[in-house]
Amino acid sequence: MTTTHPTNTSTRAGTLGTNAYRPDGVAKVQGGFAFSSDMWSENMLWGATLRSPHPYAKIISIDDSAALAIDGVECVVTAQDVPGNPYYGLIMSDQPVFAAIGDTVRYCGEPIAAVAADHPETCKRALAAIKVVYEILTPVTNPQDCVSGIAPQIHPQGNVYRHQRIITGDQSIVGDVIVEGTYEIGMQDQAFLGLESALAIPDSGGEGLELYVATQWLHEDRKQIAACLNIPEDKIRLVLGGVGGAFGAREDISLQVHTCLLALKSGRPVRISYGREESFYGHVHRHPATIWMRHHADRNGKILKIESTMLFDGGAYCSTSPAVLINAITHTQGPYKCDTASVEGWAVRTNNPPCGAMRGFGVVQACFAHESQMEKLSVALGLSPVEIRLRNVMETGDRLITGQIMDSVAPVEQCIRETDAIAMPEPLLPNADIRQIPGGTGLTAQPGNIVRGVGWGVSMKNLMYSEGFDDYSTARCRMTDGVVSLKFATSEVGQGFTMLAQQIARTILGVNEVLLDTIDTQVGSAGSTSASRQTWMSGGAVKAACEKVLEDLFDHAALTFELSRDHVRIEETDIVDILSGRRIAVSEASKGVNLDRTEEYHHPPTEDLDENGQGNCHVAFAFVAHRAVVDVDVELGLVKVVQIATAQDVGRILNPISVQGQVEGGIAQGLGLAVMEEIIVKDGKVRNPSFTDYLLPTFLDAPLVEMVLIEEFEPKSPLGAKGVGEPPCISVTPAIANAIRNATGRELPRVPIRPYDICL
Amino acid sequence: MVEVNLHGRQPQTVISLRHVEELHEWSYRQTQQTVTIGSAVPYSVMETGKIAELVPALAQAARTVGSPQIRAAGTLGGNLGTCSPAGDSLPVLSALNAVIHLIGPQGTRDVAWGEFMLGVKKNALGSGEFVHSITVPVIQGWQGYAKVGTRNAMVIATASACLVRDTEEGLISIALGSVGPTIIRCSQAEKWLRKTNSLRAGAQINADLAVEFGRRVSDEATPIDDHRSTAAYRRHCVAILAQRLLVRSLA
After folding, report:
1. Residue B67's closest CA among B41, B43, B49, B84?
2. Complex ipTM
3. What is the value of pTM for the model shown?
4. Dist CA A568 CA A551 (whole Å)
């Protein structure tokens, strides 16, 4: 890893810019960390969920008497046990807590009932004993039928989640060169390793409860749970259970309300933990999409106009589909200048599995299309993949197709040039280790069977929530006797925010010891751990709270130690009066005082899009370039990604090794989408709900990653840093696809690219 | 145990063979030129060392089974008991004409590979019988295994093949995995190849012959479409694998 323009000056261990240790690191490596599925309580019952085997069916009756008769079964809950709002949802309250008698189930795996019993095996028997009579209906599985209107309405709130267009510029423009294509993106799963799990503990008085849960946003969960339970929010305390990855799959409610209902009905603690198969039914997935794009360019390769239609299959319930769609259509142009565009997008309801947030959030789909188009433009114009992109790079100050002015640092050209400068990998040698060859230990190929290809992908990604959403973050900072303690509700899902919060406090307040309070709802909302936003947002809140405490500390120290209030500052772990040169240790200055501040950080407001898709809808942007080198066994269609070279725009680097981890992990996830990861849905049913058949890249599939971090302070960001979580996984997918196209000469309009797409 | 843990099977009785020592042993009979492998010998033992020297195709197949942890636990007994057409070791046992030694309440019996696997997850094991050990010949010649999967390790076979060239007998045998209800032994293609006289010592293989061999092998496959792949791709794979293995065997 190399960086450009390093801005870090501090070297004290654990401060910003250093590879601080993660507070959860040792426990995770040694196996001592308690994930949410490790939680246990005295007198605890186990819960389990009955799910529909049909994608679309009317429920005629539910008979739980045989289940209740089983020894050890404590209670069964169904739709009629939901005291409050029978529906939930992040954007549209359209998803039933349980499908009710007389209503329909709308996807295969939809919850119908939950049981609590003394043992997980008892739960299994109880589920098998619940008799549900269905009237099977013909599922709507083709999203196009919802656009054309020929599909029957499958939900009272309609089959279209959102339809939005973007029209800008002179539509009569026709380019000298026109390229077009229709691209398909398969349904990817977040496939976090720590499965869904929650433990609900009812209050002894019976009024409220405490829920320990692995989630991305405690306060949003609480809001939805409270509405369903018809209990005031202040009677529900949510505590973050240990989270083993999220990637968007924990934004929506899954087992939260079910666990609470069972705990309230039984009066005992209840834990529900999903297995891997149930997890595939329990959370939303990345939207499968079909995208048509047509690019017009002049003779020199300058993009003149982009036309596109996008169709996103949101599945049975809304989740975040409208926001995903808006992200997709507003990123149609990618990181390139373009004045004229005509884009129309649809997100629709079908009886397929519900889709929602996943790392990249709509931009992954759009980027696969626009970068496939850039490849076509490069071929049509006879320009190299680098040259066609350099002739169109976006810069700060450019106007986007939404009319918004790019006011983020936008080093797109530098991302491309730095990536291009990274050395190419060695050629595949005749005596190469078999594990370096496509097919690996399957011994399918010898080096002579292999063709090498190179491909490019470059992307732009918005950071934070968009379209008028005030996704603020809150943090509380307390200081006593030189020790700082921080409290926030920011979900630590593995990204390392807890470590970053400590780094911020150490740097600002000149302390070494920073305690972390429990992550729960006993402090204001932190917003969601998603949208590459927590470093910026919760980082901003922690910074603001620490700075307030620092001001209080300076006030106190100036009085107590007769320092010049206007001329004090922190140097390492001392307060220094720069007029007198006096130094007082922070630990000394804070002795006996109790400083306590809670602050919110809000990003600048954004706007909704108007009917022509115009509006300042996004907060900020980050950029990245990827160059993929692949080896392909053209006859068998097997691929080995040899190297990914990347240069990413990261703002100020706050923790180099954490950035590196995000980049390498994101690349593996984008590689998965490019060549193997897909939930296969046929007739509304998932055909591969296991890690036997839903294939994630293994260590042997992961490429060598050569990265350059473009370090440029982002003035809009409280810490100068940009979110780094999503960009790595976005343009790596089309880079790999373009490399395979380069090796095979095939169009390959769909990801994941299957072996038979290459060789048959 | 996969059935119990993953698919909710609830057997009345489970008998552990973990401590039956002879099932964990293997032997090489030099006089007969055979290797006999206990049904509980893990793949990790077959991957390298003496077994790999004597039966290299078995070692190659063993190396493709799951992860290191799974190879430390998985056995030929498991592959034979489950009898999935995707069982990684089974094409090797077929191509080598392995003999399966069974043991049960009625005593012991030997079953030739050709009579052992009866269908998808169906085998000749009688009630109360289990696999004691497996005997394969040590071949003078070349043998090799190849397996296609959608990722480069830890993957169920989309298609697999084992080719054995016995230079003493002047025979080539080839068996296919994951392209039919059982492991498919391509006796027609084998017979055709014999007739071409291309297996005599010192014979040069020409590319057209290898392609034709691959085509004939794939004609004997009966693959299906499923969520893992398509029949057309599987058929294509075994043609390419047969072609490549034949070229390697004569190189």
Report:
1. B43
2. 0.96
3. 0.97
4. 10
